[in-house]
Every structure is written in structure tokens, then in C-alpha cells.
Prior knowledge:
CATH topology of the largest domain: Transferase(Phosphotransferase), domain 1
Distance between the termini: 51 Å
CATH superfamily of the largest domain: Transferase(Phosphotransferase) domain 1
Oligomer: single chain
Number of helices: 13
Structural class: alpha+beta
Largest sheet: 6 strands, mixed
Shape: globular
Number of domains: 2
Amino acid sequence: MGCSWFSCHKSGGEPSEVHRELSVTGKVKIYKYKEIRQATNDFDALNKIGEGGFGSVYKGRLKDGKIAAIKVLSAESRQGVKEFLTEINVISEIQHENLVKLYGCCVEGSHRILVYNYMENMSLDMTLLAGGYIKSGIQFDWRTRSRICVGVAKGLAFLHEEVRPHIIHRDIKASNILLDRDLSPKISDFGLARLMPPNMTHVSTRVAGTIGYLAPEYAVRGQVTRKADIYSYGVLLMEIVSARSNKNSRLPQGYQYLLERAWDLYERSQLVDLVDTGLNGVFDAEEACRYLKIGLLCTQDDPKLRPSMSTVVKLLTGEKDVENRRITRPGLISDFMDLKVKGPVEKKTEEVNNRVNNYTNLSSDNASSSTGTRDSSYAYSSGASSSTTAVTTLSSTI
Length: 398
């Protein structure tokens, strides 16, 4: 029986032992580093198609002729060997039409590389949110957008409710939604995913998501449940309908943040004004407004009020009615970033601290409560931010 990669590496084991150990799953192909270099033309900058906190992504052609997206984890990444192997084993077992497929990996020396199937039409942030139908030639008509919204919801519902143990993605955003040649959406980047056994209520970890998509309770307390993913999905849903990013600093004050704008229009019963004008009026107005309301349901300030992703799918497809659901105020990150509050510094600090204390109390209540809906999750602590530190970080980041 083969040893683990870590024990082989530590005792001077040969790469063949790595191959034997990882091949046990039968689904993970082991690529040699030399092959990866050849596939990417020695990691030519012209083949680089993306970069994130965990490393760079290159387009490459493998020996068998397949075009692949090759994710090279950075040396500075906190993701150790054990986490890398966990990611590989988890992803290799997950199969869903709305999730990116893992071909295999490369583990040689200090190199840790994941090889995914390549998506011809890139990501939503590079197409739809960048004026896609103008720059890329992709026609994002209403039917296509609707299919993308439902597809992402189904993929996330699969991760949250059907995979065992459940998976929280932790970084749902436009750049992590890829499109194949038929414009079917695929959720990518499970580098931030954490497994969730059924005996815990939340994950305490360093905040690893993206400003604008972060649920307030996650940004402030560093505590993430499936409800944080649902918040991020709600923001993404509104981005797809409106074809605008969650923040646009070129717009006037009060219009810059998509979620704030959506809430303002909802209160005035004018949500239809948020729909992308690039559709030239060719869309189902009732359905578009329903989608925006679902986005607001997903981003409510109180995590307990956000629907599950399986419920979101039913709301999107009309199996459940959104009209009889009360929608409360969304959780707005700008409340913590001191962007909208006017008046003396003391008053600003007091209001922000009140909001932080609300989340502190909410988190404590959720953790100790034995009734109501509970998220299954897994305690993975790597230095959770305190509420004060988190607010300071958010204020300085924007």
C-alpha cells in the first residue's frame, strides 16, 4: 500500500509513490511537471488567463489534445500539502453539470498544480459584466441570463445540500462563474471550499472572500455558513440581471453599490429600472423583477431569513412564489466601511459598533440555540478576525 504524499516526500520517496497513492481514487490523473510546462509553453504570459489569491491560471494543450485550464498554486499560498490533497480528493468525487470538472493534478517537489477542463467563453466578469455582448460578441439575451442564474443556483444547491459532507464555496462571484461553449454556467475555484460535517454550526476562519460579495456576518466575525454563500449568490444574481458589477465608483453617490440601489428601487416599487438597458426592452419584466426580489431575499441582513439554495432554485423556476414572502433590509457592507454614515466621528464609530454588536449577539445566539434552522459546518480555525479588526480592514480595503 502506498504512503501519503507528505510521508513519501519527507522520507525521500519517489514521485511514482505519489502516483500510486493518488491513483487510488481512480479519478485523478497525475501529470508530470514537464508535461505541464510543455502544455503552457513554459507558462508563457500569453497563455495566462487569470490570477487569484491562490495562484495563476494558464490555458494549455495537454498531450492528448485536450485544452485545459491549469491552476498553479502560488508558493506564498497558505494551502499546505494536506489541504491540497484534500481539495483534489474532494473535487474528483464531485460531478455536476454546473461545476467545473477536475482532470488531474501535478505534485512534484514544491509544485502543486490543478488541471481543469477549459471553458471557451471565460467568466461572467470578463464577458457580461465587461459589456460582454459588445466586446466578446456573446449575446446575453434574457433567456441566456435566466439559464445562467438557475444553473449557478443548482450547482450551489448541490454543494450545500447533496454533497456529503456539505461544501461551502466561500468565494461565489462573477469571476468564479465560467461559461462553456453553450453558455452553460460552471462554478469554479474550490480552493476556498471547506468541508462541513453535520455536528457544527459554523466555520470560523480568516475571511477569504471578495469585498462586495461578502455577507456582513462573515466580514465582521469571520464566521461562514452556507448562508454566507447564499448572500454572495444574491449579489451575483442582481449583477446578472443588471449587467453591472456590485460596485461602480464612476456612478454618483447612492448609485455606486448595486445592492443599495436595488433596495432603494424595491422600496419605491421600481425594481424594473435595474434591469440591463442593453436588453433593449426585450425581456420578461415580471420574471426579471422576481429574480431581483430573490436576490434581495438572499442578501437580507439576518442570515436566518435567507432561503436555502434549493428553495432559491424553486423560486427562480416559479415552483414557489416569491410574492408572499416578506423581504427585509439587506446587509450592506458599506455600513461597516464608514461610507454613508454622516456626522461626527464619535457618532460614526458608535453606529458601526452597534451593528458589529448585533452580529456578535446573533452569532452567539445561533451557536447556542438548539432550535430553528441550523447550518451543518466544520470548525476550521486559522485565525478568525475580531470584529474591530475586520471593520478596520474593510474600511482600509475599499
